[in-house]
Amino acid sequence: MTHTRNIPIARTNLTEEEIQSVLEPLKSGWLVQGPKTKEFEDKWSSFTGAKHSIAVTSCTTGLHLSLAASGFGPGDEAIVPAFTWIATANVVEHLGGKVVFCDIDLETFNIDASKIEELITENTKAILPVHLFGLAADMDAINAVAKKHNLFVVEDAACGFGSYYKGQHVGTLGNAGAFSFHPRKAITTGEGGMITTDDDELALKIRRLRDHGAEMTDLQRHLGAKPYLLADHPDAGYNQRMTDIQGALGSAQMERADQITSERRRLAKRYDNAFADLAWLQIPKVEDGYIHGYQSYPCLFAPKDISLSNRREINELRNDWMDRLQQKGISTRPATHAVHMLKFYKEKYCLDTESFPNAALANDCSISLPLFHGMTDEEQDYVIAQVRESFN
Ligand SMILES: *Cc1c(COP(=O)(O)O)cnc(C)c1O
Q1: Residue 63: CB within 6 Å of ligand 1?
Q2: What is the pTM assigned to this prediction?
């Protein structure tokens, strides 16, 4: 007898209590950036060790606000890894800047820090390292280059919940960091994001820009001596406020933050053990000093040594393999895309695929396997068996 499987790449996992938590703001009537958002921010600071946590509408807007608050603007250049979600590059465009791509390391999928310095010009103002899929970028090397050339560092920590570098949570290593609460990430508020920083002045600037440039938030005004007077606006800001409905949902999930991160690591370890002997599948590599958060489980499909000359052939083999897994009811995805190969960037900057060889290879040969909180061991054993059988 056959039974139909449907194992998604990710699945949202909320407890009944977490679902109920959204009713509180709905009943109290405080719907936007109020006490629940503040509570979520406070819990985020305790968990990550960041001095300031600032809730926003997404990781993308978090990256944008952080960069905007640094003074980044037209004509400025920012260095961005060529293999990342497109949003990391888009925020540079949104501010009128120029995106300068940097190739990645194929073992970690993260920016190759040794290639950053050669990209620096007199217009370079920022580096946006990405902690891709929950593995921290090599922040000591990145911060050393940034310090030498006086560059602002915004960490794209979209996937970085529960990710550590030399004992420190990501998002606390650069000038600012931005996290995502999209449903593909470990904690979700539907849409949503969080900015972290230890810099008081920067935090103040970001808080203003988040809320139309107001010098005081609505919550501060309501709790203050003259709640009936409106705040002044030192900046022409944006509206990037999180709703308290999202704040409540995020805050409720933080109550089991340790469980959420340890369950992802447990599942990843089971994959690691099951695939350790497969020569054709490179599993996530975690060096000493790093703790992986496993937003996903990204692998490199390498049935032979991959190179620019055979990447198309291996890409076809990978796609056929993904198709066979899909037919068995297992969803997989390329780990992410190479941004320099996407139409907008390719055309605007006249970029050649092969200028960033490792990003191109990751684009064509990577695969993420299903990994989500709530995945049963039985489901995972099925994925393991199919992965092992479906390619020879
Ligand atoms: C998910 C993701 C983003 C975008 O996050 P949003 O909250 O959807 O804006 C940015 N960068 C990376 C690396 C991501 O994985």
Answers
A1: no
A2: 0.97
Query: Which among 180, 187, 240 is the best mutation to test ligand 1's pocket, defined by most ligand atoms within 8 Å of the CB?
Result: 180
Distance CA 290, CA 373 (A): 21
User: Structural domain boundaries of the chain?
Assistant: 16-254, 257-390
Matching fold, domains 16-254 and 257-390: no
Please give the pLDDT value at position 273: 98
Per the CB < 8 A criterion, the answer to whether 259 and 275 are in contact is no
Q: Is 156 in the pocket of ligand 1 (CB under 6 A)?
A: yes
Cβ–Cβ under 8 Å, residues 167 and 174: no
The amino acid that residue 358 corresponds to is N
For tokens 């393999």, the residue is: 321
Residue with tokens 């060096």: 287
Q: Does domain 16-254 have CATH number 3.30.420.40?
A: no
Angle between helices 35-48 and 244-254 in degrees, nearest 10 = 40
Rounded distance between C-alpha atoms, residue 104 and residue 107, angstroms: 9
CATH of 257-390, one of 2.40.50.100, 3.40.50.300, 3.90.1150.10, 2.40.70.10: 3.90.1150.10
Any ligand 1 atom below 6 A from CB of 246: no
- pLDDT, tens digit, 9 for 90 and up, residues 270-323: 999 999 999 999 999 999 999 999 999 999 999 999 999 999 999 999 999 999
